[in-house]
Each structure stands twice: as structure tokens, then as C-alpha cells.
Amino acid sequence: MGDRSIIKMFKKASFVALALFVSQVSMADSTREVSIGQNSPSLPAAASRIANELGLFEKHNIKAKVVPMDNASVTTMGMISGSLDFATTAPTDVVVSQARGQKVVAVCSVYTGFAGVLVLSKAAAAKTGVSATAPVKDRLKALNGLLIASPSATSTYTFAYKSAAEAAGANIKFVYMSQPAMVAALESGSIQGFIAGSPVYARPIVAGSGVMWINGPKRELGDQYTPINALTLNARRDFAQDNQSLVKNLTAVYADLGKAVEERPAAVKAAILKLYPELDSKTVELIYATESQGFKAKPLTKADMAHEIAFVQKSGMPIQTEKLDPAAMIFP
């Protein structure tokens, strides 16, 4: 082989190596770091963490930092203040924020349906004199005067059960705390019941100290008293406007999660077991059968947000919602 051939091959190899290097640098440069607030340790709220475990953010050139928060109110304030780029909270948080003059929008649905399960202590359930299999209206009436824990005053759990109970003629005494604290409070007798998502609600039931009183995921409260979407990915409108390609990619991440639930259930269950090591496979199978469908989120619509506005109005929360535009609550 002559010198010219060697030089030619060297140049070609150098060009290929340079092209590969530039490609790798370009990919690294295009990867976007984002912070996403998670409003609770419940399984529905863990959608972002599950997606991370499955490599779905990486697939869309996103490096996601999922930040656990105490409740939806704290998560929303973190997003509004700029401490977080996005927040996974209920769409009702968008309603409440806009009613207060804060330009917050929902980007996409993360979890559809209603995830809140009301659990009573065995002692409190027995004292009501009502069966856990009685008609829902009777079970709601039995909650009158009971001390029930909920994540926050603006939680969809609070809105839903407050409205449904009042319609049945009952007045629940609410107290607010983080979901992980609810189990210990129930066991100590500090509260008589709590409203939580999985896997928190399952713990006292599995332990034999609690009774599932009303099953939110099975729509026992009815559509009238529950939101269409349990969780949405929310952001400040100005931030979403300035980062439209990022918003598009994030929407694709959660769409991919919905597909994974259908097409790769074993991988999703493995991710759940990794994130919740205290759960056994039997419990995960039970929860998955009941709640995994919620991750198959659909595009947000104006009708969805109109329903969420009406849902907040029914709660009796003292805010002005009459002038809110449902279409203005969705980005873009």
C-alpha cells in the first residue's frame, strides 16, 4: 500500500472519528435538564419516577430530576416560584392558581381518573354500624363527624369527599398531613380515617388495622364529585411558551409511559417494585390491576378543564371561578 493510500485512509478515519465526536457532543448539548415536582409518594404521582426508570426521559433527550414534595400546594408554589420547572399535581391546582391571578397551565395529562381511597380504622368502621359493602350514600353518611386526614385543603381528595359527603348529609372533620404520616396517625388513634393513593392506602388494609371504606379508582363517588384527571403536568405559562420543544418532548414521555403500561407490563411492575421496595409482588399485582389504566392518559380538552372548574366550585372553596376560561388553562 502506497503512502498516498495510507494518507487517504488516515484522513477518512479521522473524518469518521471527528463526525462521531461531533455527533456525541451535539447529543449531549441537546439533552435538557429539567426539575419536576412530585406532589406525593403515591403510585399515580410516581409517574415521572417510573418513566425515569424505564428510560423514557432519556429517549427524548431529557435528564429529569424528580423532586419529592409534601403535597400539591407546596409543589405548585415551588413551580410558581421558579424553584421547579414543572409540577405534577391535580388540574384543580391550575384552576385555583388561575383564580388567584397566577398564570399556571396544564401541559398534558399524567394520570386519569380519581386515585383517592378512603380508609377507616377497624374500630371507627365498626362504630359506624354500617357495612363496608353498604350503598355508597350510606357509607358517606357514616362519615359524619369523623376525623379524616387528607393531604391538603386544596387536594382533589378533599374536594371530592367533602362534596360527596355533604350531598349525603354528612360533615367530615378534615385534618391535613402528608400521606406517609397518615398510616401512623391511624394506628395511634389520632385520626379515624384517611384519604390516600396507593400504595399508602393498602398498608393498613394488608396489616389488618384498616378497612377500605370508599374506593376512588373504582369511581364509587361518581363522576359528579371527582375530577377527570387525577394528575396533570403543570407549568407557568411563560416558561412553557419559552420552552415549547421541551413541552412537546415531555408530553411524548408520558404518552410513552401509557404505551409501556400496555406493552411492557413486566418492566413497569419491576420499576414499581424498585421504587417501592416495601411492597411485595402480590401487592403490586393487586394495585397494578386496579390503577395502571390511569397512566394511559388522553390529550387534555377544554371540556376536561370546564369539568375541573365545576369540580372546584362544588367544593365550596372561597375563590372566584366564574370568569375562568377552560381553554386558557391548557398549553398551548
UniProtKB/TrEMBL annotation:
Cellular component, GO, one term: periplasmic space
Protein origin, superkingdom: Bacteria
Signal peptide positions (record): 1-28
Principal subcellular localization: periplasm
Pfam family, one: NMT1_2
UniProt keyword list: Signal
Compartments where located: Periplasm
Keyword Signal: yes
Family label: Belongs to the bacterial solute-binding protein SsuA/TauA family.
Name of the featured protein: NMT1/THI5 like protein
